[in-house]
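Thread: Bm1036, structure

OP (GT): Posting the sequence first so everyone is looking at the same thing. Length is 175 residues per the record. Can we get the structure tokens written out before standup tomorrow? I want them in the notebook alongside the other entries.
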Amino acid sequence: MKSTGENSLSAVNGEQSTLCICRNVYSLEIALLMSSLLGMTGFCTLCAIFLSYSGAFILHICLALIGGIAVLVGVLTHFPTALLFYMIVQISSTIYLSIIAVLSINVFFNPSKWKFNEASFLGHTNEEIRESGVILMCFSLLLIPTSACSLAAAIQLFHRCGQKESDNTKSNEKV
């Protein structure tokens, strides 16, 4: 049987661990919001620079905005479905950014293959096209880690929400 001192010590330790978990969740939420904001802003900038001449521009902006709305709903309401939806959007944008990175490397090394007669949004000369390839490469390679960081924070927050829900269910079953 535990003494009163041992009981109070375990209560304090339990309180500290709960406080630590709450701080960890708050830091995850802040990391998720910041990386999402950086990723969404960079993604929109990338689209605005290079895709404004194509019909895909609106699709990419909508993808970034939907991801931003989903992360806000997920963080503010702790709604797991919104976080799951955000993770799906983030996975698709990470794949998309990886494709852009590979294509931009191809643009940099083979600029003559990227000359189009009708729409020359990458440039008119080989040097302009090569510069566009470098800009695309830098943007996409900077956004991939940001996107991965945001995805990791969303996964951890989703796991914490599920763990919290599980703990609530167990405590309700005991009562």
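GT: Both are above now. Quick notes for whoever picks this up: The CA atoms of residues 81 and 104 lie 34 Å apart. The mean pLDDT is 72.
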